[in-house]
Amino acid sequence: MKHVQRSKLVSLIVVVAILALAVVVRPTAIQTLQAAALPVPLAAPPAGATLPFVEVQAEDAATNGVVIGPDRFYPGLATEAIGRRAVTLNSAGQYVEFTVPRASNSIVMRYSIPDNATGTGLDATISLSINGAIQPKLALTSRYGWIYGGYPFNNNPGDARPHHFYDEVHRQVAPLAAGAKVRIYIGSGDTAPSYTIDLMDFEQVAPALTQPAGSLSLTADFGADPSGVADSTAATQTAVNTASSQGKVLWVPPGTYKINTQILINNVTIRGAGMWHSTFNFITSFGNNEGFYGNYAPNPSTNVHLSDFAIFGNVITRVDNDQINGIGGAFNNSTIERLWIEHTKCGLWLDGPFDNLKVSQMRIRNQNADGVNFHKGVTNSSFTNSHFRNTGDDAMAMWSDSNGTTIANRNNTFAFNTIEMPVLANGIALYGGTDNSVTDNYIADQQAEGGGIHVGNRFSPVTAVAGTTTIARNVVVRAGSRDYYNGWNFGTGALWFFALDQDMTGIINVEDNQFIDSNYEAIHFIGNNVRNVNFNRNQIIGAGTYAIEIRAAGSATFNNTTVSGLGRGSIFSCRSDFTIIKGTGNGAWIDAAPVCPAPYPEPIYGPVVTPTPLPTATPCPSSVCPPTSTPLPTATSTPPPTATNTPTPIPGTVVRAVNAGGGASGNWIADAYFNTGSQFADTSTAINTTGYLDPNIAPQAVYQNVRWAPAFNYTIPGLTAGASYTVLLHWAELSFQTAGARKFNVAINGTPVLSGFDVYAAAGFKRAIGKSFTATANSSGQIVVAFSQGGADNPFISGIEIISSSGVTPIPPTPTTVPPTIQPTVTPLPGQTPYGGTARSVPGTIQAEDFDNGGEGVAYHDNDAVNNGGQGRTTAVDVETTSDSGGGQNVGWMASGEWLEYTVNVQTAGTYTLRARVASNTGGGNFRVEFGGIDKTGSVAVATTGGWQNWVDITRNVTLSAGTQVLRFYVINSGFNLNYLQLSSGGNSTNLALSKPISASSTNAPFAASNAVDGNASTYWESINNAFPQSLTVDLGASANVSKVVLKLPPGWSARSQTLAISGSADNATYSSIVGAASYAFAPGSANTVTITFAATSRRYIRLTVSANTGWAAAQIAEFEVY
Questions:
Q1: What does pTM read for this prediction?
Q2: If you ran DSSP here, which 8-state letter would residue 688 be given?
Q3: What gap in Å lies between CA 762 and CA 755, rounded to an integer?
C-alpha cells in the first residue's frame, strides 16, 4: 500500500500541463450568453455545491494596499489567488476592509505571508477590527504554504520556484449584520515583511449540536481532553472500539482533541457537534500518523458513519509513501458527511475494492496532494455537494488502478462540487474505469500540469475508459496549463482526453457544459486513438488559443456546440487521421480549416463574453444538497517534473541586446538608451541559469549588473516602424531574499505587461528569469520600455533584447554613450494630408473611413492589399456599409498590427472624453489610440457585442495639447469593427468615475466592481444573489462638483427595472442622500441606459445603492458614470 500513490505519480512523467489563469465565476449564479451572441443559447447549468458561506474577494473590498494581478504566469502570488487577483499590504496602516454581505458570525481569511530564509516557516500576526472595534489579532504562518522546486517538492528555498503560497485562518466572532465592516490591517506588533490577502468567507455558523440519546461521550465516558492540551489518542481509540462493539454512536462534544497517530475505525458511527465546534488536531507531520483509517481490502470496514467534525493535520511536506491523509482505507456501505479536513496530505485517499460509499457536504482545503481519490475497485459510490480549495494535486480523482485487483472503478459519481485552485494536476480526473459520471460541478483556476476535467487511459488502469462515461452540466473556468516538466511546448485543454496506455474507445457523452476563459484550448485530444466522444449543447466562451486541439487519431461528434472569444482560432491539428463529425447547430467555427503553426503560439486573452443571468430551472436536488448542507473536500496526486536545463530559445534575429547597468559583453552593448537611474553590480557569486525560467540565457555579466530607479524607461531606437518584435527582458534578483520585498510594473509602448512583478517570488535569489512580449515599433522606429514602482521598493532591469522574427538585418551595436530621449513626431509625415484637405477638429467626430491621404505605411497600414468591404476609397483599408444609426460606412476586417492615422486640430488643451464606436461578434480585440506618437489610452479591450453590426461605445479620458497633430488608431488584437471616434470636452462631458477606485458591498465573481468603471458597457458588475440592498462606491480621487450619473447595462440585454438611490460623502465615512430611492427602467430601445440628474453638489465618494431588480435576483451595473 505504501507504494500505491508513488506508482501513479511516477507515471505522471507523461502528464500534460497548462498554465491556469483568470477570474472566478461563482457557482451560485452561473450565467448564460445572450441569444445574439450564440446561435444556440443554453440555460446555465446549476453547477457547484450549495455553500453556507459567501466568499468576498479582497480586491473588491476597500483598501489602501496594492492590488496585484490579474496574472496567469505560474508561479506567482496573483496567479495562485482565487480569481488571479489579491491585495498586498506592505506597511503599517495599510488595510483591507470587507463589507459583510449577509448576517454572519464567522470569518475565514485566505492569505499569504513570506516564508523565512530556511523554509521552516514564518509566524506572525495581523490586526483585526470589526466596525472600528479592535479584536484579538489573527495568528498567521507560512508553514503550510511555500513549497519549492519540482515534484515531490520540498521546503528548501534554495531550489527556487516557490509556489502553493496560501493558507487560511478561521475564527468565530460576535454576530455581524449585513453591512458591517471587517478590517484587516498592519498594526503595532505585526512583523511579517508583507501580507497578501486573497479573500474572506462569511458564514452564519449554527449552534453546536447536542448529544444524541443513548450515545457514548468521548469526554464524559472516556476522559478525552477537549482543551487540546493533554493527548487524547488512547481515549479516542478506546472510545471508537467501545462504540463499535456496543453498536452505539460515539459523540464528540465541542472542543479540540490532540491526536498523535491514526484512529482505526470499523462498524462505528462518530458524530460531532459541527465542523466549527468539534476538532481532531493531528500533531504529527510524517509517517502513518494522521487521519481516520478503515480496514483495507479484502476485508474493508463496513457500516462506518462519520459526520459533523473537523480534522486538522500538520503535514508541511508531501511524502507519497506516508499514509497521512484525513480519511483512508476502504469503506463498504458507509457515509461520510460534513467534515472539514485541512493540512493533511490528502483529504480522502480511499483504497478499494469496496462498494457503496456516500460522501457529501465536505470542506477540503489546503492539502499537499489530492482532495479525494477513489483508488482501484471503487464501485457504486459518490462524492457530492462539497467544496475544495487549494489542493496540491487532483482535487477529485477516480483512479481504476490495476495494482493488486482486477476490479475496475464502476458506476461512481462526482456531482455538485465546487473546486477552486487545484495548484497541480486537474480539477477532476478519471483514470480508466467503467460507467462513471462527472456532473454539475464548478471548477475554477486550475494551476499547472493538467486541466479542468481530464479523462485518461493512463497509470495502468484495469480497463480503458469503458461503458458510458458522462460529463454533463459542468462549468470550467480559467483551466488548462503549460507542461513545463515534460517540455511540451503547448497547453493542455480545459477538458482533455489522453489515450496513453490504451486506445480510448468507450462511449463518452459530453453534454451541456460551459468552458469559460480557458487558459489554452478548451478541448484537447492527445495520445493514440480517441473515438466515440459525443459533444452536445456545450459552450466554449473564451479560450487563449483554440476551441479544439487535436494531437491524436480518431474522431468526435459535435452538435449544438457554440464558440466565442478564441485567441488563436477554431481548430489546431497537425494530423490527418482525426475526423470531426459535424452535426447540427454548431455555427461557422466548425467549418474552419485546421491550422498547425510552428512554433506553438502564445495564448491571447480578451474579455470573456458574460452571459445574461437566467434563473436556473434545475437546482441541485434536495437529496444531494439539503438546505443545511455544508460542502468541503481536499487533494492528492502529482506528476514528477523533468525540468530541462536547455530551454528552447526564442526564434529570430537579435537586433538589440543591452546590458542594463553594465558594460559591453560579447554581442551585448554597454548600457544605453535609458533616461535616468542608477547602476548596481554584484559579481561575488555566479547567477543560476539552469532550468527553464529564461528562454535565452544571457552572459553572467548581464545578470550581475542592473539599472534601477523609482521610475525609468529605455527608448530603443533604430527599429523598423510598424514592424513586430519580441521584447525579452532579463532579471536576476541580487538584493532581496524574501517574496514581496520588491514589486514593480513594466509597460511597453504604454501598454502594461507586468503588474506587481516580484522577481524573487518568480525565480528565487540570484536565479535568471526572462519574460518575453510582442511589441510593434512606433512610427519613429522605437520601442519604449517603462519601469515603475508596483508596491515595494524600486524596479530594476538586468538586460533587454529586441528580437525580430522577420529577418530584419541586425543593426550594428551603437556607441556606449547615452543618447537623449527621442521625442515622437507630432505632425504628419511628408506626403500625408488630411482626407478632404482639412484636419479633423477636436472636439468633434472622426469617421473611421476618413483616414488621411498618403497610402500604405504613411497614412495607414493594412496587412493585405485588398479592400475586403469593397466600399470607400481605392485603398487596402477594409471599408463596408454600416447599419449603425446615422448610416455611412465603417472599417472592418481589422487585424493585429494594422493602424489608421488622422490629422486632427485640437482647439484647446485639456482633458477630452474619447468615445470609440465598435462592434464585435467574437470579442478578444484590443486597440490603443496615440496622439503625436504617444499612447493616450493604453490597451483597450473590446468584448463581444453580439454581432458585427451591434454597436456600443467604449470611452476613455485623454489629455491633449493644443494644435495640429496625428491621431493613430492602432489594432493590438483583431476581432472588432470601428465606425467612428468622437472627442468631447467641457460641461458634463468628462466621466469622473472612469478607471477610478471602486468597491462593492459584494461581488458574484468574475463580475467585478471594476467592470463598472472600465468604459465598456459589455462588461458588468453583479452582486451576490438574494441579498438586497447592494451598493457600488466610487472614489473620484478628490472632491468634485457633480450633477449627473449615467448608468448602463449591456446593450443586448432584455428590459428590466432596478430600484436605485444615490448618496455621497467627503470622507467615505458619513454619507448623505443625493437622490432618493426610485425605480428606473433599463430598456433596449434606449441602449439600456439610465440618466439621473440632480442639483450640483461637491463630493469625493459617490455611492449607488440597488435595492431591487426585476430582471435578476442581484444588483447589476455595466457602467457607473459620474459627471
A1: 0.58
A2: B
A3: 13
DSSP structure class, residue 760: H
Contacts for 207 with CB less than 8 Å, ≥ 6 apart: none
690-716 burial: b if 16+ Cβ within 10 Å, else e: ebbbbbbbbbebbbbbbbbbeebbbbb
Is 302:333 a contact under the CB 8 Å cutoff? yes
914 grid coordinates: 474619447
Q: Residue 309 — pLDDT band, cuts 50, 70, 90?
A: very high
Q: For the segment 88-121, what is each residue's pLDDT rounded down to a tens digit?
A: 999 999 999 999 999 999 999 999 999 998 888 9
pLDDT value, residue 964: 87
pLDDT at 606 over 70: yes
Q: Name the percent of the chain lying above pLDDT 70.
A: 88
Does the structure show a pLDDT above 80 at 830? no
Q: Which domains does the chain have, with CATH numbers?
A: 53-203 (2.60.120.260), 370-591 (2.160.20), 653-804 (2.60.120.430), 840-985 (2.60.120.260), 998-1122 (2.60.120.260)
A 10 A CB-CB count for 43 gives 15
Maximum C-alpha span of the chain: 100
CA–CA distance, 700 with 690 (Å, rounded to integer): 12
- Residue 386 CB contacts under 8 Å (≥ 6 apart), including other chains: 49, 359, 360, 361, 362, 363, 364, 417, 418, 631, 632, 633
The DSSP output letter for 809 is: P
Q: Dihedral (C-alpha) 769, 643, 600, 609: value to the nearest 10 degrees?
A: -70
Task: Please report the pLDDT score of residue 600 as a whole number.
Answer: 86
H/E stretch holding 179 reads none
> Which cell numbers in the block locate residue 430?
478519471
DSSP per-residue string spanning 645-681: SSPPPPPSEEEEEEETTS--BTTBBPS-SBSS-EEEE
Grid coordinates representing 166 are 496560501
Distances (CA, A) of 1006 to 56, 60, 814: 11, 11, 48
Element (H, E) at 922: none
Taking the C-alpha atoms of residue 607 and residue 925, their distance in angstroms, rounded to an integer, is 8
